[in-house]
Here is the input.
Amino acid sequence: MLLTLTTRMTATRVPATDLGHLLHKHPDKAQTFSTSAGPAHVFYPRADEDVCTAALLLEVDPVALSRAHRGRDTVVADYVNDGPYAAGSMLAVALSRVFTTAMNGRCDTRPELAAGPIPLAVRVPSAPCRGGHELPARLFGPLGWRVEAAPIPLDAQFAEWGESPYVDLRLEGEVRLADALRQLYVLLPVLDDAKHYYVGEDEVDKLLRAGGDWLATHPERDLISSRYLKHRRTFVRTALQRLTELDGSRSEDAERAEPSEHTERPLAAVRRDAVVAALREVGARTVLDLGCGGGALLRALVEEPSFTAIVGADVSPRALDIAARWHDRLPERVRERVTLRQSSLVYGDTSLRGHDAAVLMEVVEHVDAERLPALERSVFGVARPAHVVVTTPNTEHNVRFPGLVGLRHPDHRFEWTRAEFSAWAEDVCARFGYTAALRPVGPDDPEVGPPTQLALFSRTEDV
Here is the structure.
């Protein structure tokens, strides 16, 4: 099985061999790693200032593989078996084993490079594609990739035999490397519609860890979840429920139907990035995630070591139970930084005082208008953090979502225009002693503005 990753020199990034920093694999050194499927080799067919290509080659012994899995619930059959040759779950496991640090988005030598998109070309010369040769475009296209999936004939000398269920898959795009690796980890087995190992409940967690930033809003999320979990109905239902809860009610239908020019990253992920960037900007170390739901933002916050104490608060026991399941699986040293608590945003909770920053991400629009003053008093008057980050939909942008009628979600009590949001922020500042900077989140349409609007409040005595 073979997979290659290629990047090129750009005006702002020289040389292309920076790819070695991101992958934590030196271009001048061929390396071999042991995996459950066989040895995985990493080498660089080309590595110079202009172009750098890293290759992952997985060697599998088909006889040993068949014997090891005989009688088990797997896709590995006796004698005739494409497992060792066609990219699928075994290559996905090798990706995770070999490029763990890169998949987590870490690069200590070049953190700014790991945080942003790079020009990237991916090739998988033999990818099983069960479901039609248009399936790769349906899976990778919404994630911002340009997709080419060339059918491979059963035999080039006998055209009448037709095409095989394999494609020569090529992807190109401006993508963050960690995102690309996570997408491949999930979608290669989905293309194959098979896995070489037993699928248990922990596989739901793996899916959410790798797909949490993009799967909730993917138009094929049901198909992806079903295939990744080998059509185990109980697990699929759990995954879909948790995906909905991850963005809470925030995984809105409108976001799933964003215009094609806005699909570089799902809006939910762009929004989380904007919130984390605002918290970094003000130097926050202790953070409140108010209305945390199932923990979508918490997952992003724990990735930032500078946030030393994080509190997720929500009124819903069900949402907190979902967040707790994720929290319990964290490494101990990470888990100690995160606290979950039940708290209502419309009742003042003095135990939430003393934090550097609080976040209300897609929360205010879920509160009845007559109860909004109580939320304002609770957050800006009682908890009174040094900074507050608020995001909410821009209702003017709704005309850019095809098929959307009315509000973006049935649980929204209202949605503000840019002028209404500005007026609300100005009123809050006047009553509670804050200043506010308003910013767009997502593509800022010249006519109707961005899909999401953000306000960064700062307490006046701290300015």
Notes: Residues 247-263 have pLDDT under 50 and may be disordered.
